[in-house]
Specification:
Strand content of chain B: under 5%
Helix content of chain B: over 70%
Number of domains of chain C: 1
Low-confidence stretches of chain C: 148-166
Distance between the termini of chain B: 33 Å
Low-confidence stretches of chain B: none
Order of helices and strands of chain B: HHEHHHHHHHH
Mean pLDDT of chain B: 91
CATH architecture of chain C: 3-Layer(aba) Sandwich
Chains: A mainly alpha, B mainly alpha, C alpha/beta
Radius of gyration of chain B: 19 Å
Order of helices and strands of chain C: EHEEEHEHEEH
Radius of gyration of chain C: 15 Å
Number of helices of chain B: 10
Helix content of chain C: 25-40%
Strand order of the largest sheet of chain C: 2-1-3-5-7
Largest sheet of chain C: 5 strands, parallel
Number of domains of chain B: 1
Oligomer: heterotrimer
Chain lengths: 649, 287, 166
């Protein structure tokens, strides 16, 4: 079961190698090989896990453990110093202050308290970790392959010094950190990897070093350092008052019904999850992250960064539910889902629509964790899987479209079907996957809806009813734009890198295959995981098996229909109706005074209803209030605890 | 099982017949309300068969595929409904079908269909929350999403779901494409968007849209029926009578309102969903 | 029997005219005349229409539009020229930019005279057009049965209908 360590180390070694490797050809080969090895390694990890036949595989390292702990501590201190330095250099003092608070606390806690706390398992792997490893290993490494071609074009467009070695170093370090994060059971270890992902995305967002990029990268850093601080506080509270720093202990107590007792540390950890999952009021960092080259966005949105946040919240699910922590998470997730879905309607920048949709979907996963019931967690994990695949596909497609047509604006994707037919069909499949039956996201949303209704929380019921209506609106209008057959468009497909096409194709195939076999995914991964954590048996999937089979059959039928009949007609093709003034090319019409006018069609954005500013204001006001109230109570509770414990602190 | 098969086959065969007849009756009643004689009751069928006889033309090579999928999934929606399956499955299949219709309109890249498509999309956004709330209401009341279970629930759900019923009736005006909310495609003599969504559909393609509309109407009336079904003959009779009254009511509304702006459609239907729908849901929770 | 005669959908175009015939066409749609009795619906969309009602004469500006609307109607289709201007240019005949009647641009099947044409005459003209529509429909079947046959375009199926009644 040591494959996972090899994976972590391998990814990092590759990262280092890429940092020193300057030649294009060498990088191409190394990245492709490394991606293949990482993907294979993650699959092998899963195979090993299933061969062991256990629900949770704990890995003990005995003597090495304390060495690793100290090494992590040292790295953390160094990184904190780097952040302080960079903060001062760029006059972003808040980041420096946060790092300066965090580092001494970490050192203090680790050297004084943590020593006395016995940690049984630093590393343990369960099925949720395996799911995450597979997502990171396969989707993540596909993104690195995509980045090869993309960054070549990017360098070509941008000019300037070639900093691609740094870029690939960060990408692979990111993957390595994610592997570490999802298998850590010792919260201090997890915290270490947590902070590494924060820093990696900080450097990735600021990659272009423009003023906007630097500002946005610092915003990301500050918000996630707040989250990190909250994580650390959670660990300290847990260690000081409960005498443990193991995630599994916390979860077990939650399952045994002591969730309410553990509410304070759970709240702090959940807050960290919320920041990383870009929930309101912290969502602005994810929107700002768009300034980075597209592979970065794809990595952050789909398989790594934000998924770490929801991973933690889903892990904590047994401790949530109808206690203060759970209610806080549900409310914030609900508000975020609703308002982000609305805000997406008003956007015409493709990447911004994707960003809002990510925030909204993460909101949904967060709610699923917050509800804390088995059915909701099932839906949450399903959402996580489908979202990772579909969203990375969408980002990578938009990235390619941007390079080919010179714009990421949806309005400029008029006639994409004529210019880049393959890419447009991939995007259409991706969009359909985001909201339509019988594809993945809808299936999971359906399950989520059922579990919210069962949880008896009518706020959530209203949220999902209205939120999904808005979701359908903004996706369909984009889908419509792509499907439009505009006359006289030149096919420019040959300009697309073959790496990019390969990755698109692989992701589309994955999306469809996973949708077709999702009942098995549920049976092999999700159900046993939930049974294992909650200690129940014979758990049924949230969706009845009949419905799951119907969905699969519908998808199969649809695929067959598309393969057989799509794009075939024996009818006479005639010009479109333009009030009798079509000049014959379907693009221009005869205006007054016999002048030719060009027709242009625009989508609806309903700025007055769903304007971004309005939604953000509403979201910030409501979520900050919720957090304020919740943490006022939490801190009050800590003070009470401290006075009860007397000199315990 | 046999009962289900009979139900489904009856739906597949009878729905277009009854749907077409209802459309004919609608036209006759509308005519009478306007003080004229009006067409034959069978006029919708004449129109339908005429469309089949027209020259086959299209504006691109994908539109017909989308429309065929629209018809297919509308039929499948009704199939799921009358086979007594999950209401949410029914609703999601319906939105898949509607999406195909919208995409078909978009694919022509023509101005009037696109405007119609955007409006159709808006209407979808307007009615969807209330449709979902209706399904959730049935679930809370009868403990199951399955149409079969809801029908066999011995207590009629209508008295406990009056708010939801009123809300559903409200959005039914949008779904049945009646004034004041027939924004996306024109019926009768309205022509502000030419024919809106269906401007570029002609001949057989348009005939498919028509027949899909009949199927859809029948299955929507099935939804109305659910409020009254209680597994007895009396409940069934009441249900069918209410369906007919509802249909007449929609015709009445159609003839008495001018078309309104899209904001009215969105505002009012969301308001109805939040007030009537959600309050009723809360009541059902505490019952 | 062909269903085309039972469900004639019309599209209406008004060229160079005083709008008198235009108003009379719309009058047919009112409850007073109730053309829906014959299944007639004013579609306003050539792709849905079977009968093309043209009022007013054709000029240099609108001839392309008239032609295009006609071309966009799927077969079988019938053109009814309503009012004297549509028949031969009428009062505008001598104007510098007037082509003349509708038949200078597209083949006309039924001519309805009058200035302005009475609604009864218009309805009569449309009903007359139904006969032509049925013939064309039958011709379509024959053509598909024997594609080698020459294209019989019912160009000048001239019918003069509806005398001024006053």
């Amino acid at each position: 079961m040591s494959t996972i360590f090899i994976l972590i180390i391998f990814a990092f070694v590759v990262a280092l190698a890429l940092l020193v490797l300057k030649a294009d050809a060498g990088r191409d080969i190394l990245v492709k090989i490394a991606a293949a090895v990482i993907a294979a390694g993650s699959i092998w990890t899963a195979v090993e896990f299933f061969r062991s036949g256990e629900d949770t595989v704990n890995i003990a390292m005995h003597s090495a453990e304390s060495v690793i702990s100290y090494a992590m501590l040292a790295i953390e201190v160094i990184l904190a110093l780097v952040v302080i330095f960079l903060g001062i250099k760029h006059k972003k003092y808040l980041a420096s202050v946060l790092a300066a608070i965090q580092a001494p606390f970490t050192v203090w806690f680790e050297l004084t308290k943590a020593h006395h706390i016995e940690v049984e398992n630093n590393v343990s792997i369960d099925r949720l970790s395996i799911i995450m490893i597979l997502i990171v290993g396969i989707v993540g490494s596909l993104i690195t392959v995509y980045a090869l071609g993309y960054m070549k074009d990017f360098q070509h467009h941008q000019g300037g010094p070639d900093r691609r070695p740094l870029f690939f170093f960060l990408m692979f370090t990111f993957l390595s950190a994610m592997f570490g994060l999802v298998v850590s059971n010792n919260l201090l270890w997890m915290f270490f990897f947590w902070e590494i992902t924060t820093l990696c995305s900080f450097f990735l967002i600021g990659f272009t070093r423009t003023e906007e990029a630097v500002n946005n990268s610092f915003r990301q850093l500050v918000l996630n350092l707040i989250g990190g601080l909250s994580f650390l506080t959670g660990i300290i509270v847990l260690g000081s008052f409960y005498g443990t720093i193991e995630l599994s202990t916390l979860v077990t107590l939650g399952v045994q019904g002591y969730g309410a007792l553990m509410v304070v540390p759970t709240m702090f950890l959940a807050l960290a999850g919320l920041t990383k999952a870009a929930q309101m009021p912290f969502h602005s960092w994810l929107l700002g992250a768009m300034v980075a080259p597209t592979p970065t966005s794809a990595l952050l949105h789909s398989s790594t960064m934000v998924k770490a946040g929801v991973f933690l919240i889903l892990k904590l699910a047994p401790c949530l539910g109808f206690n203060m922590a759970g209610i806080m998470v549900m409310l914030i997730g609900g508000i975020t889902f609703l308002l982000a879905s609305f805000a997406a309607i008003s956007q015409s920048n493709g990447k911004r629509v994707l960003a809002y949709s990510t925030i909204a979907n993460l909101g949904l996963i967060v709610i699923c964790g917050g509800v804390g019931a088995t059915g909701a967690v099932w839906a949450g994990i399903m959402l996580l899987i489908f979202h990772a695949i579909t969203k990375s596909l969408m980002f990578l497609c938009v990235g390619t479209a941007e390079h080919q047509i010179g714009s990421r604006d949806i309005e400029d994707m008029d006639g994409l079907f004529g210019r880049l037919p393959r890419l447009a069909s991939f995007m259409m499949i991706g969009i359909a996957g985001m909201f339509l039956a019988p594809l993945g996201m809808l299936i999971s949303k359906w399950a989520a809806m059922t579990s919210f209704i069962d949880s008896g929380n009518f706020f959530l019921v209203a949220v999902i009813c209205f939120g999904s209506a808005a979701t359908a609106f903004y996706w369909t209008k984009w889908l419509g734009k792509l499907s439009a057959i505009v006359a006289a468009r030149e096919n420019i497909e040959s300009g697309v890198n073959k790496e990019e096409t390969f990755v698109h194709g692989a992701l589309v195939a994955m999306e469809i295959v996973i949708c077709l076999i999702f009942p098995f995914v549920s049976k092999i991964f999700v159900i046993p995981y939930i049974e294992g954590v909650w200690g129940v048996s014979n758990l049924a999937a949230t969706l009845s098996s009949n419905n799951m089979i119907i969905m699969c059959v519908m998808l199969a039928v649809l695929l067959i229909l598309i393969l057989l009949f799509y794009g075939k007609t024996n009818k006479k093709i005639v010009p479109i109706y333009m009030a009798g003034a079509n000049t014959g090319d379907n693009l221009t019409y005869m205006g007054s005074m016999q002048t030719e006018m060009t027709q242009s069609l625009r989508n609806w954005y309903m700025e007055k209803y769903f304007g971004e500013k309005k939604m953000n204001m509403l979201g910030l006001a409501s979520t900050i209030t919720i957090l304020g109230v919740a943490f006022a109570i939490a801190i009050g509770t800590i003070i009470t605890m401290m006075s009860v414990m007397g000199g315990g602190f | 099982m046999v009962k289900i098969i009979i139900c489904v086959i009856a739906y597949l065969i009878l729905a277009p017949v009854i749907g077409g007849l209802l459309a004919g009756i609608d036209r006759v009643i509308s005519a009478r309300m306007q003080g004229r004689h009006g067409p034959s009751v069978f006029q919708p069928f004449y129109d339908f068969f005429k469309l089949l006889e027209k020259e086959p033309i299209t504006v691109n090579n994908v539109q017909d595929f989308y429309i065929a999928c629209f018809l297919l999934f509308i039929v499948v929606t009704g199939f799921f409904f009358f086979a007594g399956m999950d209401l949410l499955l029914v609703i999601f299949t319906l939105s898949l079908a509607s999406t195909f219709l919208i995409i078909a309109a978009f694919s022509s890249n023509s101005a009037y269909p696109q405007m119609g498509a955007e409006r159709e999309l808006l209407q979808m956004m307007a009615y969807e929350p209330m449709v979902l709330i209706t399904a959730i209401g049935f679930y809370l009341y009868s403990g199951s999403f399955n149409v079969a279970d809801i029908i066999h629930n011995s207590k009629m759900s209508f008295p406990y779901m009056i708010g939801i019923f009123a809300g559903f009736l409200f959005i039914l005006t949008i779904k049945m494409r009646k004034s004041p909310f027939d924004l996306s495609m024109s019926h009768h003599a309205h022509q502000e968007l030419v024919a809106g969504l269906k401007t570029e559909f002609s001949g057989k393609t348009l005939a498919m849209v028509e027949i899909a509309h009949w199927y859809e109407n029948i299955f929507l009336l099935g939804f109305v029926f659910l409020f009254f079904a209680n597994g007895t003959i009396a409940g069934t009779v009441i249900g069918i009578v209410v369906c007919l009254v509802t249909y007449f009511f929609e015709t009445f509304i159609d003839n008495n309102f001018a078309r309104m702006k899209w904001n009215v459609a969105l505002n009012s239907s969301w308001l109805v969903a939040i007030t009537l729908g959600m309050i009723n849901i809360v009541v059902l929770y505490f019952m | 029997m062909s269903y085309v005669t039972k469900s004639p959908w019309v599209i209406h175009y008004d060229g160079s005219s005083c709008n008198g015939c235009d108003i009379e066409v719309l009058a047919c749609l009112t409850p007073m005349y109730d053309v829906e009795r014959f299944g007639i619906i004013n579609t306003g969309n050539p792709k849905h229409a079977d009968i093309f009602l043209v009022t007013g004469s054709v000029n240099e500006q609108n001839k392309a539009v008239v032609k295009q609307i006609y071309d966009q109607m799927p077969e079988p289709k019938v053109v009814v020229a309503i009012g004297i201007c549509a028949n031969n240019g009428g009062i505008f005949r001598e104007c510098y930019n007037i082509m003349g009647g509708v038949d200078t641009v597209i083949p006309v099947d039924v001519y309805v005279p009058g200035c302005a044409a009475r609604p009864e005459a218009i309805i009569d003209g449309v009903v007359k057009g139904l006969g032509v529509l049925a013939e064309k429909r039958a011709a379509m079947d024959n053509k598909s049965a024997a594609p080698a046959a020459a294209e019989p375009k019912a160009e000048e199926n001239t019918e003069t209908e509806g005398k001024e009644e006053a």
